[in-house]
Amino acid sequence: MASRKVVELFYDVVSPYSWLGFEVMCRYRHVWNIELKLRPAFLGGVMHGSGNKPPGMVPNKFKYMDKDLTRLAKYFDVPLKCPADPFEVMFQKGSMSAMRFVTAVQERETGGDEQVEQVSRELWRRIWSEDKDITQPESMSEAAKKAGLSDSDVEAALQLYTSQPIKDKLKNTTEHALSYGAFGFPMIVCHIDGKPEIFFGSDRFELMAFCIGEKWLGPKPDKSAARLMSGSGYPCKNGDTFCGKFYLHPKFPTLLGGSLVFLLSGRHILCKQVFRMADGTTDVSVSSWQIFVTLSRK
Amino acid sequence: MASRKVVELFYDVVSPYSWLGFEVMCRYRHVWNIELKLRPAFLGGVMHGSGNKPPGMVPNKFKYMDKDLTRLAKYFDVPLKCPADPFEVMFQKGSMSAMRFVTAVQERETGGDEQVEQVSRELWRRIWSEDKDITQPESMSEAAKKAGLSDSDVEAALQLYTSQPIKDKLKNTTEHALSYGAFGFPMIVCHIDGKPEIFFGSDRFELMAFCIGEKWLGPKPDKSAARLMSGSGYPCKNGDTFCGKFYLHPKFPTLLGGSLVFLLSGRHILCKQVFRMADGTTDVSVSSWQIFVTLSRK
């Protein structure tokens, strides 16, 4: 198994396209052979540092983005809804406090990033689904509790997020993004053979997959009929029982195909390699027969 | 067979992302059940009319676009290469004459749009692959001859392209684009149930397919192993001979699958409906058996 590629995701909860990118990458971290690193940063700092202007300033572009986000949200299955006054939400209220809070949660978390992931998601849900505030301490507290943090963890993060070390950490991550050439979020940095490949936006996943040698299965890989063998799966024993959802490789001789169908209809198959996927389905590779079989575990 | 959906593609050969979108749509016009209408227009007029600024003005964005285009060109299999001085090419020399010339070719062409398609492609090749001029009459003449136009057709288009009716036609198409909410190119307008759905850029094809009820097979559908039945195909006779590249529908009973494999290995199959694709391969639907079979014609 090749070592997992490190993929950094720079995001800010003020950015709706970042939410789409975030959910897709959180889904694919269990499908692709990658190590996803969440990089909460401050979009305002990136816009200022790069001299970029928000796209919504051009009326036609703003109207299009509204429509584009609605369509994408449906296709990506993310409950995104534009707030009543997006300009107030994005440019007057902003996200500096919220991103400092996420940074504080990240600073305190050990052994993974489940809290950072869940707190980010709940902040997005407030601002980009429920049209609720994310600037006040009680707003962050509510989001963090919904994300599953204990009262004491929430309290500690609220104590921490206005401290200088947290302000500096958020600033450093933002400058790190700028050093990669950021001019907006989401920005995804894939480290391939020691070199960073930069992808901006939530519309380069298919290209990204091509560049990192993985397969794009659409925004909902768990819903896809096709499954790929995954480095994150693990072997289970020969002779396992499956139900008969399968795909024959085009090069596979038709006669052997018949035998395989017979084996499958008997609900048993001798496998060289079997991988169980994160979502409970199973992938089988019988590579010596030049055939890939994809099955749902019974 | 449902009636074909009308899809309008607004483009300008000064825009590299338009080239990618153009090639993809020209490929899919033979795969999806659509009627593609080419709408050569003037990007400068759209930028001015919408108050938009070119994305390349932000240094980080410019650097990213250069990289993004190189990667996309490879993935899309379009021979796009940035010219030595893109600013001179795009903003000083521009494309008004070239787009008037394309408009003149379109005005004169009857019974299809092959000339418009080929001339547009050759102009893109000059500016975005070979770093050659597209502003002078001799440049347009060269492109048109390479596109397969006769000397007399080229001469007639050169006579026509500076005329007032052609200037007006280009202006009208550009204003038509603005009336759809354009702020850049490519812009693709899909007419679905009498309503226009607008897609900007060359990164919404998967979403577009979802919206028009078609399937996205990547930027090179002819290279894809999967084939879909196409409204543009036509039936051929029962008992035709095929070679054995096939896909069994997951719901298909495994035992019948065995029989089908046997039929295929005998190189004959009785089909309910057979469609021949534009690229010479053949799709077979045996819908009463609840199965789709995809075959290459022998």
UniProtKB/TrEMBL annotation, chains A, B:
Transferase found in the keyword field: yes
UniProt catalytic activity: RX + glutathione = an S-substituted glutathione + a halide anion + H(+)
Gene name tied to this protein: gstk1
Species assigned in the record: Oryzias latipes
Protein name, per record: Glutathione S-transferase kappa 1
Family classification: Belongs to the GST superfamily. Kappa family.
Highest taxon above the source species: Eukaryota
SUPFAM superfamilies hit by this protein: Thioredoxin-like (SSF52833)
Sequence ranges assigned to domain DSBA-like thioredoxin in this UniProt record: 6-209
EC number: 2.5.1.18
Lineage, opening ranks: Eukaryota, Metazoa, Chordata, Craniata, Vertebrata
GO MF: glutathione peroxidase activity; glutathione transferase activity
GO biological process terms, semicolon-separated: glutathione metabolic process
GO cellular component: cytoplasm
Pfam family, one: DSBA
Alphabetically ordered keywords of this record: Transferase
EC main group: transferase
